[in-house]
Specification:
single chain; 330 residues; alpha+beta; Beta Polymerase, domain 2; Methane Monooxygenase Hydroxylase, Chain G, domain 1; 2 domains; seven-stranded mixed beta sheet; two-stranded antiparallel ribbon; 8 helices
Length: 330
Amino acid sequence: MLQVYAARDGALQRIEAGPAGLPPDGVWIDLMQPTREEEKLLEAILGINIPTREEMQEIEASSRLYSEDGALFMTASIVSRAETEEPANTPVTFIVTPRHLITVRYADPLPFRTFIARCAKQPRPVLASDSAFVALLESVVDRAADLLERIGGDLDAVSASTFRPPQRHTGMLGRRTKPPVDLQEVLVRIGRNNDLATKIRESLLSLDRMIPFFRQGSADWVQPGLKGNLKALERDVRSLGEHDAYLAQKINFLLDATLGLINIEQNAIIKIFSVVAVIFMPPTLVASIYGMNFKHMPELEFPFGYPMAVCIMLASAILPYLYFKFRRWL
Protein backbone atom coordinates (compact mmCIF):
# COMPACT_ATOMS: atom_id res chain seq x y z
CA MET A 1 0.00 0.00 0.00
CA LEU A 2 1.44 3.34 -1.10
CA GLN A 3 0.34 6.33 0.95
CA VAL A 4 1.47 9.91 0.34
CA TYR A 5 1.25 12.70 2.90
CA ALA A 6 1.57 16.34 1.88
CA ALA A 7 2.43 19.36 4.03
CA ARG A 8 -0.66 21.52 4.00
CA ASP A 9 -1.77 24.08 6.59
CA GLY A 10 1.15 23.21 8.85
CA ALA A 11 0.23 19.53 9.11
CA LEU A 12 0.57 16.30 7.15
CA GLN A 13 -2.50 15.33 5.17
CA ARG A 14 -2.99 12.13 3.23
CA ILE A 15 -3.46 12.60 -0.51
CA GLU A 16 -3.83 10.32 -3.50
CA ALA A 17 -0.86 9.60 -5.74
CA GLY A 18 -1.23 8.43 -9.32
CA PRO A 19 1.05 6.98 -11.99
CA ALA A 20 1.70 10.49 -13.33
CA GLY A 21 3.87 11.38 -10.36
CA LEU A 22 3.87 12.73 -6.87
CA PRO A 23 2.18 15.98 -5.88
CA PRO A 24 4.63 18.88 -5.56
CA ASP A 25 3.89 19.29 -1.83
CA GLY A 26 4.27 15.59 -1.04
CA VAL A 27 6.64 15.11 1.91
CA TRP A 28 6.17 11.63 3.34
CA ILE A 29 5.73 8.50 1.22
CA ASP A 30 4.75 5.50 3.32
CA LEU A 31 5.10 2.04 1.78
CA MET A 32 3.12 -0.35 3.96
CA GLN A 33 3.63 -3.94 2.75
CA PRO A 34 4.34 -2.69 -0.78
CA THR A 35 3.86 -4.78 -3.87
CA ARG A 36 6.56 -5.08 -6.49
CA GLU A 37 4.53 -2.84 -8.82
CA GLU A 38 4.40 -0.07 -6.22
CA GLU A 39 8.15 -0.35 -5.65
CA LYS A 40 8.85 -0.09 -9.39
CA LEU A 41 6.52 2.91 -9.69
CA LEU A 42 8.25 4.76 -6.89
CA GLU A 43 11.70 3.86 -8.19
CA ALA A 44 10.78 5.24 -11.60
CA ILE A 45 9.45 8.50 -10.12
CA LEU A 46 12.24 9.19 -7.61
CA GLY A 47 15.15 7.46 -9.37
CA ILE A 48 16.22 5.45 -6.31
CA ASN A 49 16.28 1.74 -5.49
CA ILE A 50 13.78 0.60 -2.85
CA PRO A 51 15.35 -2.13 -0.65
CA THR A 52 13.57 -5.46 -0.59
CA ARG A 53 12.34 -7.17 2.54
CA GLU A 54 15.32 -9.53 2.54
CA GLU A 55 17.74 -6.62 2.28
CA MET A 56 16.02 -4.86 5.18
CA GLN A 57 16.55 -7.88 7.43
CA GLU A 58 20.31 -7.97 6.97
CA ILE A 59 22.21 -7.18 10.15
CA GLU A 60 25.41 -5.76 8.66
CA ALA A 61 25.86 -2.07 9.43
CA SER A 62 26.84 -1.38 5.82
CA SER A 63 23.52 -2.84 4.67
CA ARG A 64 21.44 -0.88 7.19
CA LEU A 65 23.13 2.54 6.93
CA TYR A 66 24.35 3.85 3.58
CA SER A 67 23.90 6.71 1.13
CA GLU A 68 23.13 6.36 -2.55
CA ASP A 69 22.22 8.86 -5.26
CA GLY A 70 21.91 11.69 -2.73
CA ALA A 71 19.54 9.73 -0.46
CA LEU A 72 20.19 8.37 3.02
CA PHE A 73 19.09 4.76 3.55
CA MET A 74 18.62 3.81 7.22
CA THR A 75 17.03 0.65 8.61
CA ALA A 76 16.00 0.44 12.27
CA SER A 77 14.34 -2.25 14.36
CA ILE A 78 10.99 -1.02 15.67
CA VAL A 79 9.01 -2.83 18.35
CA SER A 80 5.56 -3.92 17.18
CA ARG A 81 2.72 -5.90 18.78
CA ALA A 82 3.98 -4.86 22.21
CA GLU A 83 0.48 -5.10 23.66
CA THR A 84 0.17 -8.76 22.71
CA GLU A 85 1.78 -11.83 24.24
CA GLU A 86 4.14 -12.12 21.26
CA PRO A 87 5.95 -8.80 20.73
CA ALA A 88 8.30 -8.63 17.77
CA ASN A 89 10.89 -6.38 16.20
CA THR A 90 10.23 -5.39 12.63
CA PRO A 91 12.77 -3.71 10.32
CA VAL A 92 11.69 -0.31 9.01
CA THR A 93 13.71 1.46 6.33
CA PHE A 94 13.82 5.27 6.30
CA ILE A 95 14.92 6.85 3.01
CA VAL A 96 15.50 10.58 3.41
CA THR A 97 16.18 12.96 0.57
CA PRO A 98 16.14 16.77 0.64
CA ARG A 99 12.57 16.63 -0.69
CA HIS A 100 11.00 13.37 0.49
CA LEU A 101 10.85 10.95 3.39
CA ILE A 102 10.13 7.37 2.29
CA THR A 103 9.40 4.63 4.82
CA VAL A 104 9.29 0.97 3.86
CA ARG A 105 7.72 -1.37 6.39
CA TYR A 106 5.94 -4.70 6.58
CA ALA A 107 4.21 -4.16 9.92
CA ASP A 108 2.17 -1.41 11.53
CA PRO A 109 3.91 -0.34 14.76
CA LEU A 110 2.00 1.91 17.10
CA PRO A 111 4.37 4.92 16.72
CA PHE A 112 3.41 5.23 13.06
CA ARG A 113 -0.31 5.21 13.83
CA THR A 114 0.22 7.70 16.65
CA PHE A 115 2.29 9.98 14.44
CA ILE A 116 -0.30 9.94 11.64
CA ALA A 117 -3.17 10.67 14.01
CA ARG A 118 -1.25 13.45 15.76
CA CYS A 119 -0.26 15.15 12.51
CA ALA A 120 -3.83 14.98 11.24
CA LYS A 121 -5.26 16.68 14.36
CA GLN A 122 -2.52 19.01 15.57
CA PRO A 123 -0.47 21.32 13.34
CA ARG A 124 3.18 20.33 13.50
CA PRO A 125 6.24 21.79 11.78
CA VAL A 126 6.58 18.90 9.33
CA LEU A 127 6.78 20.90 6.15
CA ALA A 128 9.95 19.15 4.90
CA SER A 129 11.39 15.67 4.80
CA ASP A 130 13.95 16.26 7.57
CA SER A 131 11.40 17.67 10.03
CA ALA A 132 8.98 14.81 9.26
CA PHE A 133 11.78 12.29 9.84
CA VAL A 134 12.75 13.83 13.19
CA ALA A 135 9.10 14.03 14.31
CA LEU A 136 8.57 10.37 13.40
CA LEU A 137 11.70 9.37 15.33
CA GLU A 138 10.43 11.29 18.35
CA SER A 139 7.25 9.23 18.22
CA VAL A 140 9.30 6.00 18.10
CA VAL A 141 11.45 7.07 21.06
CA ASP A 142 8.38 8.13 23.07
CA ARG A 143 6.86 4.71 22.49
CA ALA A 144 10.03 3.00 23.71
CA ALA A 145 9.97 5.16 26.85
CA ASP A 146 6.33 4.22 27.50
CA LEU A 147 7.11 0.52 27.14
CA LEU A 148 10.06 0.74 29.52
CA GLU A 149 7.90 2.57 32.03
CA ARG A 150 5.28 -0.18 31.74
CA ILE A 151 7.91 -2.88 32.26
CA GLY A 152 9.25 -1.08 35.34
CA GLY A 153 5.77 -0.77 36.84
CA ASP A 154 4.99 -4.44 36.22
CA LEU A 155 8.30 -5.51 37.79
CA ASP A 156 7.53 -3.39 40.86
CA ALA A 157 4.12 -5.08 41.12
CA VAL A 158 5.71 -8.51 40.82
CA SER A 159 8.26 -7.65 43.50
CA ALA A 160 5.60 -6.29 45.86
CA SER A 161 3.32 -9.31 45.51
CA THR A 162 6.08 -11.92 45.70
CA PHE A 163 8.23 -10.53 48.50
CA ARG A 164 5.61 -8.98 50.76
CA PRO A 165 6.29 -9.56 54.50
CA PRO A 166 4.69 -12.61 56.16
CA GLN A 167 1.30 -12.15 57.80
CA ARG A 168 -0.29 -14.17 60.58
CA HIS A 169 -3.16 -16.36 59.43
CA THR A 170 -5.52 -18.31 61.64
CA GLY A 171 -4.99 -22.00 61.08
CA MET A 172 -4.66 -25.34 62.80
CA LEU A 173 -0.98 -24.80 63.50
CA GLY A 174 -1.08 -21.01 63.99
CA ARG A 175 2.05 -20.48 61.90
CA ARG A 176 3.21 -17.27 60.26
CA THR A 177 2.76 -17.98 56.58
CA LYS A 178 2.92 -15.86 53.45
CA PRO A 179 -0.15 -15.33 51.28
CA PRO A 180 -0.30 -17.82 48.41
CA VAL A 181 1.60 -16.64 45.31
CA ASP A 182 1.55 -18.43 41.97
CA LEU A 183 5.28 -18.59 41.35
CA GLN A 184 4.74 -20.12 37.92
CA GLU A 185 2.73 -17.06 36.89
CA VAL A 186 5.47 -14.85 38.34
CA LEU A 187 8.07 -16.61 36.19
CA VAL A 188 5.89 -16.14 33.10
CA ARG A 189 5.50 -12.41 33.79
CA ILE A 190 9.23 -12.01 34.35
CA GLY A 191 9.96 -13.87 31.12
CA ARG A 192 7.57 -11.71 29.09
CA ASN A 193 9.05 -8.52 30.50
CA ASN A 194 12.54 -9.77 29.73
CA ASP A 195 11.54 -10.60 26.15
CA LEU A 196 10.03 -7.14 25.61
CA ALA A 197 12.98 -5.38 27.28
CA THR A 198 15.39 -7.28 25.02
CA LYS A 199 13.51 -6.18 21.91
CA ILE A 200 13.45 -2.56 23.12
CA ARG A 201 17.20 -2.74 23.73
CA GLU A 202 17.74 -3.95 20.15
CA SER A 203 15.54 -1.14 18.84
CA LEU A 204 17.38 1.51 20.86
CA LEU A 205 20.75 0.23 19.62
CA SER A 206 19.62 0.57 16.02
CA LEU A 207 18.34 4.10 16.68
CA ASP A 208 21.58 5.01 18.43
CA ARG A 209 23.49 4.14 15.26
CA MET A 210 20.98 5.68 12.88
CA ILE A 211 20.62 9.18 14.35
CA PRO A 212 24.33 10.13 14.16
CA PHE A 213 24.46 8.75 10.62
CA PHE A 214 21.57 10.97 9.58
CA ARG A 215 23.03 14.01 11.36
CA GLN A 216 26.33 13.64 9.53
CA GLY A 217 24.84 12.70 6.16
CA SER A 218 22.34 15.57 6.09
CA ALA A 219 24.63 18.30 7.43
CA ASP A 220 24.46 20.20 4.11
CA TRP A 221 20.68 20.43 3.79
CA VAL A 222 19.05 19.74 7.17
CA GLN A 223 17.30 22.69 8.83
CA PRO A 224 19.51 24.37 11.46
CA GLY A 225 16.73 24.25 14.05
CA LEU A 226 16.59 20.45 13.86
CA LYS A 227 20.20 19.89 14.91
CA GLY A 228 19.28 20.54 18.52
CA ASN A 229 16.37 18.09 18.24
CA LEU A 230 18.69 15.42 16.87
CA LYS A 231 21.15 15.87 19.74
CA ALA A 232 18.27 15.68 22.22
CA LEU A 233 17.08 12.48 20.56
CA GLU A 234 20.57 10.98 20.88
CA ARG A 235 20.61 11.79 24.60
CA ASP A 236 17.13 10.34 25.06
CA VAL A 237 18.04 7.13 23.26
CA ARG A 238 21.18 6.62 25.33
CA SER A 239 19.33 7.43 28.54
CA LEU A 240 16.64 4.91 27.69
CA GLY A 241 19.35 2.36 26.89
CA GLU A 242 20.82 2.83 30.36
CA HIS A 243 17.37 2.48 31.92
CA ASP A 244 16.79 -0.68 29.91
CA ALA A 245 20.08 -2.08 31.26
CA TYR A 246 18.91 -1.29 34.80
CA LEU A 247 15.64 -3.12 34.16
CA ALA A 248 17.60 -6.09 32.82
CA GLN A 249 19.51 -6.29 36.12
CA LYS A 250 16.25 -6.08 38.04
CA ILE A 251 14.75 -8.84 35.91
CA ASN A 252 17.75 -11.09 36.62
CA PHE A 253 17.42 -10.43 40.36
CA LEU A 254 13.69 -11.21 40.37
CA LEU A 255 14.31 -14.35 38.34
CA ASP A 256 16.98 -15.62 40.75
CA ALA A 257 14.86 -14.70 43.79
CA THR A 258 11.77 -16.44 42.39
CA LEU A 259 13.75 -19.59 41.63
CA GLY A 260 15.07 -19.40 45.21
CA LEU A 261 11.51 -19.25 46.54
CA ILE A 262 10.62 -22.28 44.45
CA ASN A 263 13.56 -24.17 45.97
CA ILE A 264 12.42 -23.15 49.46
CA GLU A 265 8.92 -24.47 48.78
CA GLN A 266 10.33 -27.72 47.43
CA ASN A 267 12.53 -28.11 50.51
CA ALA A 268 9.52 -27.45 52.73
CA ILE A 269 7.58 -30.18 50.97
CA ILE A 270 10.48 -32.60 51.37
CA LYS A 271 10.75 -31.64 55.05
CA ILE A 272 7.05 -32.39 55.57
CA PHE A 273 7.46 -35.86 54.13
CA SER A 274 10.54 -36.44 56.28
CA VAL A 275 8.73 -35.30 59.43
CA VAL A 276 5.72 -37.48 58.62
CA ALA A 277 8.02 -40.47 58.16
CA VAL A 278 9.69 -39.81 61.52
CA ILE A 279 6.35 -39.30 63.32
CA PHE A 280 4.82 -42.52 62.01
CA MET A 281 7.91 -44.63 62.51
CA PRO A 282 7.40 -45.30 66.30
CA PRO A 283 3.69 -46.27 65.98
CA THR A 284 4.62 -48.60 63.13
CA LEU A 285 7.32 -50.15 65.27
CA VAL A 286 4.90 -50.69 68.19
CA ALA A 287 2.26 -52.18 65.90
CA SER A 288 4.86 -54.47 64.35
CA ILE A 289 5.96 -55.73 67.79
CA TYR A 290 2.42 -56.58 68.80
CA GLY A 291 1.80 -58.26 65.49
CA MET A 292 4.66 -60.76 65.77
CA ASN A 293 2.52 -63.40 67.61
CA PHE A 294 5.20 -64.41 70.09
CA LYS A 295 4.42 -67.51 72.14
CA HIS A 296 5.13 -65.67 75.38
CA MET A 297 3.64 -62.15 75.29
CA PRO A 298 2.42 -61.00 78.72
CA GLU A 299 0.26 -58.24 77.28
CA LEU A 300 -2.02 -60.84 75.65
CA GLU A 301 -3.37 -61.73 79.08
CA PHE A 302 -3.99 -58.14 80.14
CA PRO A 303 -7.66 -57.10 80.11
CA PHE A 304 -6.63 -53.70 78.73
CA GLY A 305 -3.79 -54.86 76.51
CA TYR A 306 -5.33 -53.61 73.25
CA PRO A 307 -6.21 -50.11 74.56
CA MET A 308 -2.74 -49.90 76.09
CA ALA A 309 -1.10 -50.69 72.73
CA VAL A 310 -3.24 -48.07 70.99
CA CYS A 311 -2.29 -45.47 73.62
CA ILE A 312 1.40 -46.33 73.23
CA MET A 313 1.16 -45.86 69.44
CA LEU A 314 -0.65 -42.51 69.84
CA ALA A 315 1.87 -41.31 72.39
CA SER A 316 4.79 -42.35 70.19
CA ALA A 317 3.29 -40.23 67.39
CA ILE A 318 2.26 -37.18 69.46
CA LEU A 319 5.45 -36.79 71.49
CA PRO A 320 7.77 -36.38 68.44
CA TYR A 321 5.31 -33.91 66.93
CA LEU A 322 5.29 -31.80 70.10
CA TYR A 323 9.08 -31.95 70.23
CA PHE A 324 9.36 -30.70 66.65
CA LYS A 325 6.95 -27.85 67.46
CA PHE A 326 9.01 -26.96 70.55
CA ARG A 327 12.20 -26.81 68.47
CA ARG A 328 10.37 -24.69 65.83
CA TRP A 329 11.03 -27.24 63.13
CA LEU A 330 7.38 -27.11 62.04
